[in-house]
Structure formats: structure tokens, C-alpha cells
Design goal:
- The chain has 6 helices and 10 strands, in the order E-E-E-H-E-E-H-E-H-E-E-H-H-E-H-E.
- By secondary structure, the chain is of the alpha/beta class.
- It has one domain: Spore Coat Polysaccharide Biosynthesis Protein SpsA, Chain A, CATH 3.90.550.10.
- The strands form 2 sheets. Strands 1, 4, 5, 6, 7, 8, 9 and 10 form an 8-stranded mixed β-sheet that branches. Strands 2-3 form a two-stranded antiparallel ribbon.
- A hairpin with a 2-residue loop joins strand 2 and strand 3.
- Helix 2 runs antiparallel to helix 4.
- The protein is globular, with a radius of gyration of 16 Å.
């Protein structure tokens, strides 16, 4: 969709991975970020990376890099706001698609199904779900709500699903078998599991996305 940009969320501290940039960790001989971009890039008009610190470490990708607009690593909502702020300066862009930088198996119909879900529900946002779990960082956001998101962050809001519930957020469900498309590599053992999936082909088993939220938003 020409009116949608993707923001790849790579601004976290990666504590469970031992620090550093999770998206630059190797999977199948390539950085995780390569897998993410290959999945999400064809679905959108462009991609921006949300990352803090020296943007030069991503220079090889030739993509815009935007830092969190708030200090002290306030979480993925800040990365979403960074993406919305960037998108607001791009002509004709109405929405952003947020995806974590450590999800190498994203579905090829992610944007289309999220957009269909929010239209069917008559709400402005939609997030992904699989296996009975929702994945709030994998979502479609209208640029028009960036002012409200900024105000909420400045007021101390950090929880994605609590904020999206204020306006309405649909969900689109994908099967979690044989591979959960929203698996994320949060820790070294997750990378090892992802390697096993890649080596065994698309039928290999893999667990649910770490950090996903069971059931409905609180």
C-alpha cells in the first residue's frame, strides 16, 4: 500500500540477548534484520528503522534511522511515535506498520489483513494475534493519532494495549502452527530455535512470540 510505511522497532536494550542490537544478530548466515526487511518490505511504500545510539551501524541498509523521541528507553510505544513523526513528514502517508526487529518469520499478508481487520471493526488500529495471544508491537497505526500518543507518553503511559484500547484496536489472527509468524528472537536460545526452523524447512515447529499477551487487553 503506497500510503503505509513500516517502522522496524530496534530501539530496545536487548537485555535477554546480552545487550547490543538484536536485529544485527545472525540467523541463517544473515542478520535478523535482513529477514524482517525481506518479509515486510514488499508490503509497504518504505521502511524506517527505530534505533537509538549511533545510526551508522545500520548504514549498509540505506534506510532512515529515527531515535526514540523520549529519553531512557520508554519502550515500543516511543518507537511507534518515532515512526509516526517520520511518516508525518512524508507526503501521502496515512499509516505506519510497526514490527519488531527480531521477528524473522512475519507473514506476507500482514499489512493487508491488519487493514481488513480494522476496517471490518470500524476502528483506527489493528494488531496481530496467533495461537490465542495478541502481539501489540505488530500493529497498524494512523498518523493522525500521533499527537494523542505523544501526550500519553509524556503523561507516563508505557503499555501498548492500554493506550490502543482508548481508540479501538481490532486483531487479525494467524495460525501458530507449524511456525508462529510472530516468533521473536529475544534470547540466544530463541536464535538457536529459529536456526532449527530454517534448517528443517517451513514445517519445523516453533513456539509463540516471547512477550506476547494472552487474551484480551486488560
Amino acid at each position: 500500500m503506497s500510503s503505509v510505511l513500516a517502522v522496524v522497532l530496534a530501539g530496545g536494550l536487548a537485555r535477554r540477548m546480552g545487550g547490543g542490537d538484536k536485529p544485527l544478530r545472525s540467523l541463517g548466515g544473515r542478520p535478523l534484520l535482513d529477514h524482517v526487511l525481506a518479509r515486510v518490505g514488499p508490503q509497504v511504500a518504505g521502511v524506517v528503522l527505530n534505533a537509538n545510539g549511533d545510526p551508522g551501524r545500520f548504514a549498509a541498509y540505506g534506510l532512515p534511522v529515527v531515535a526514540d523521541p523520549l529519553p531512557d528507553y520508554p519502550g515500543p510505544l516511543a518507537g511507534v511515535l518515532a515512526g509516526l513523526d517520520w511518516a508525518a513528514g512524508q507526503a501521502g502517508v496515512t499509516d505506519i506498520l510497526s514490527v519488531p526487529g527480531d521477528c524473522p518469520f512475519l507473514p506476507g499478508d500482514l499489512l493487508a489483513r491488519l487493514d481488513a481487520a480494522r476496517r471490518a471493526a470500524g476502528v483506527p488500529m489493528a494488531c496481530a494475534a496467533s495461537g490465542g495471544w495478541t502481539h501489540p508491537p505488530v500493529a497498524l497505526w494512523p498518523v493522525a493519532l500521533r499527537g494523542e500518543l505523544r501526550a500519553a507518553l509524556l503523561a507516563g503511559e508505557r503499555k501498548i494495549d492500554r493506550w490502543t484500547a482508548r481508540f479501538g484496536c481490532a486483531s487479525a489472527e494467524w495460525p501458530a502452527e507449524p511456525v508462529d509468524p510472530f516468533f521473536n528472537a529475544n534470547a540466544p536460545e530463541d536464535l538457536a530455535e529459529a536456526e532449527r526452523v530454517l534448517s528443517s524447512g517451513p514445517g519445523g515447529p516453533i513456539g509463540k512470540c516471547n512477550g506476547a499477551i494472552p487474551g484480551d487487553p486488560p
